[in-house]
Amino acid sequence: MENNLETDYIQRCLALAEIRFDRGDNSDWNSYDFEKLSESIQEATGVILSITTLKRLWGKLSYTNSPAITTLNTLAQYAGYPDWGTFKRKTLTGNAQQQVGKQKATVPDSSIDSISGQLATDSPAEAIIALNRSETDNGISAGTPGAVTGPSTGNSGPTKVSGGVHQRTRRWPYWALGLLSVAIILYVALLSNGRSKPAADPTAYKFSSNKTVLTGVPNSVIFRYDASAAKDGDTVFISQSWDVRRKFAVPKDKREYSSIYYRPGYFRAKLMVGKQIMKEHDLMISSNGWLAMVDPEKDVPVYFNRKEFLKGNIIEVDKSTLEAYNITLQPDNPPLRFYNVQDMGGLRTDDFSFETTVKSNFSEGSAVCQRIGILILCKNDMFHIPLCAKGCVGNIGLYAGGKSLQSMDTDLSKFGRDLNQWVQLKVEAKDKHIRILVDGEVACSYPAQYEATDIVGVQYRFEGPGAIKDTRFIKGDKVIQL
Fold first, then answer.
1. How far from 352 is each of 426, 475, 476, 478, CA to CA, in Å?
2. In 3-state terms, what secondary structure has residue 420?
3. CB 205: neighbour CB atoms within 10 A?
4. Among the listed ranges 98-112, 170-184, 367-381, 396-410, which one has the minimum average pLDDT value?
5. 48-57 burial, b if ≥16 CB within 10 A, otherwise e?
6. Whole-Å CA distances, 87 to 73, 81, 189, 191, 346
7. CA-CA distance, 306 to 311, in Å (whole number)?
8. Please, which residues bridge with residue 424 across strands?
9. pLDDT tens for residues 357-380?
10. How far is Cα 217 from Cα 264, in angstroms, rounded to an integer?
11. Which terminus has fewer CB within 10 Å in the chain: N or C?
12. Interatomic CA distance for residues 414 and 424, integer angstroms
């Protein structure tokens, strides 16, 4: 009986998911549809359900075991509920309300409305009072408000009560008893929703990781965790980075989880139960020198061979290199990325200079603005400096030293340049003061309040072909040439 009820809940939740997905009858779905459903669920919940798991849920693959609670929680979230338990309670409430609706043929609408309003706030005892009051107000009982009814004697004659008022003995009709049961169920559901769970104890959890290769990407990371202290109904997640939306549900009774990092950088991996972070640690994925790729973000990047982009002291991916990989330049410009992520020996954001020279000699079609983003990557922070064609400075933004500047309300016109030529950029941070120069001219300068942190590398973003050279960090007499 319990299994049948659980299956019924699952089928209802799947039906809601299908409505949100809006891709027609599931009998016509193929692997591509389930791939898109997996992407849709990830975008909505931050959790990945595999295509195989989804096919099992929809009965496309044979599977006799019940779905894991982590899967059900994610499915319920996609259907619009906080978690699986809430979905079940709300579904139960909905069924009860349907039963109330069936009584409207014999109970006046005003009575139902009055009781419904009471159920939102009253206890079961108060709901009984409301029910009695509704009977009186609608002529179901001939008693006078305030009168006390004597015990039933089995006859239908009048009974003498205080104040000399007579009324007939009141009997509870069957529908009223049923409505009282509904009131109690609704009250318990509302009461349980209002209670917050006590915070879990992070010391009861363990979390660590090991990389399969020391440097470079792709790089698989084996996460080892112990979440056995999680309670029934709790969903356990591993978040690979600072962005907790990009998390994966993991079984609490398992101990290992593997993931692939396709992009280098500094990450703060987290073990979470629901929204609470239990454990976290640093995770550095270095680039092993310069790395060039076209990064579609949701797919595996296209990596270029070093001999294709390392040209003496210039790092460049040109139009012919992209075309050799069958990467089209129009109508959408390919997102070209250069990385150099490594241990910078304690270089920090409160005292450094950064110099680089860039060029983007591709301005065809939608690449007319020749936008370039130069990122200084840090632990828990970053600097982002934009460059673009002179005519496009009306829509750029800068972030450095914990401060964001937007061209809509700040003059950033000096970041507009002729990018068909080499353009020099310099960033200076000293005593919490930021100064940025473009071709030797001060483009912006301001005091900043931010928490100093370690620098771990650089990233360059081009829309189409691009080139860089002469990149270095400087602190006093120390020069880190990249």
1. 11, 5, 8, 10
2. coil
3. 20
4. 98-112
5. ebebebbbbb
6. 9, 6, 11, 15, 50
7. 9
8. 357
9. 999 989 999 899 999 999 999 998
10. 7
11. N
12. 12
* Residues 224 and 250: beta-carbon distance below 8 Å: no
- DSSP per residue, 217-284: SSEEEEEEEE-TTPPTT--EEEE-SS-TTSEEEE-TT--EEEEEE-S-EEEEEEEEETTEEEEEEEEE
Interior CA angle at 328 toward 322 and 331, to 5°?
Answer: 140
Say which residue, 131 or 82, is predicted with more confidence.
Answer: 82
**Domain-wise residue ranges, the chain:** 2-80, 202-285, 291-481
For domain 202-285, give the fold.
Immunoglobulin-like (2.60.40)
Could you tell me the CA-to-CA distances from 469 to 16, 217, 386 in Å, in that order? 54, 22, 17
Class of CATH domain 291-481: mainly beta
Q: Residues 48-81: pLDDT tens digits? A: 888 878 988 998 887 667 888 888 999 999 988 8
Structure tokens given for 100: 């109330």
Taking only the tens place, the pLDDT of each residue in 276-312 is 899 999 999 999 999 999 998 777 999 999 999 999 9
